[in-house]
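To illustrate the input format used throughout this study, we show a single complete record. The first block contains the structure-token representation of the backbone; no residue identities are included at this stage. The design step must infer an amino acid for every position from geometry alone.
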């Protein structure tokens, strides 16, 4: 089976979580294509926090296909494009608001809008704190429209030994939402 996913990294703290998700998708044999977008501010946050550029991410695997956030005419902007779901990690409060109100003015918000109208999985890993009423209402709107709201709130029950372990565990929990199944020793065993 050949799976295709879309991953967007927005301008919020925690781009390492997006990178960890990307690495997990690369590792999954059944994934043939990962459509990657990094917003303009996302590029700045990615560089600040991970010292990586989008091109560095592309060099990780031939599965990755980089799309410009400005190209609203790309394939993933259309409901006719077949894929298995989209993740935004980290998702800025700005992107959350744009998607919640149907403002499809760039490829990230348009592709997310298409996921909702086509009933495809859309996982939004919001990174903001504290949350104002607008953020909270936007999360409810998106939840009701079918999105999975999964803020960057990693669990600590697996006793992560370092940051990488923490990013990795959160990445697996996000991918669980898209049906990812592997022998993850960090699953809670009771
Ligand atoms: C260094 C930096 C860090 C930021 N961190 C956050 C953040 O953690 N959460 C957030 O919602 N916005 C954050 N912002 C603001 C967003 O990047 C800004 O609202 C931007 O317009 C979001 O657009 P984007 O989703 O297209 O990247 C940050 C901006 C900068 C420059």
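Output of the design step:
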């Amino acid at each position: 089976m050949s799976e295709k996913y879309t991953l967007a990294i927005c301008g919020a703290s925690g781009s390492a979580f997006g990178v960890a998700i990307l690495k997990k998708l690369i590792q999954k044999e059944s994934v043939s294509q990962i459509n990657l977008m990094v917003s303009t501010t996302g590029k700045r946050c990615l560089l600040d926090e991970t010292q990586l550029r989008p091109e560095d991410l592309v060099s990780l695997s031939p599965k990755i296909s980089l799309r410009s956030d400005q190209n609203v005419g790309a394939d993933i902007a259309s409901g006719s494009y077949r894929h298995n779901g989209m993740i935004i990690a980290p998702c800025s409060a700005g992107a959350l608001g744009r998607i919640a109100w149907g403002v499809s003015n760039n490829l990230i918000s348009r592709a997310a809008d298409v996921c909702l109208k086509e009933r495809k999985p859309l996982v939004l890993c919001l990174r903001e704190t504290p949350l104002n009423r607008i953020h909270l209402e936007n999360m409810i709107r998106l939840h009701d429209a079918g999105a999975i709201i999964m803020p960057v709130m990693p669990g600590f029950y697996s006793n992560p030994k370092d940051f990488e372990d923490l990013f990795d565990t959160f990445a697996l929990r996000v991918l669980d939402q898209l049906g990812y199944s592997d022998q993850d020793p960090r699953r809670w065993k009771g």
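Structural context for interpreting the output: The pocket of flavin mononucleotide is lined by residues 10-13, 39, 41-42, 44-45, 48, 92-95, 127-128 (CB under 6 Å). Helices lie at 15-27, 40-50, 54-58, 93-100, 107-117, 133-144, 163-176.
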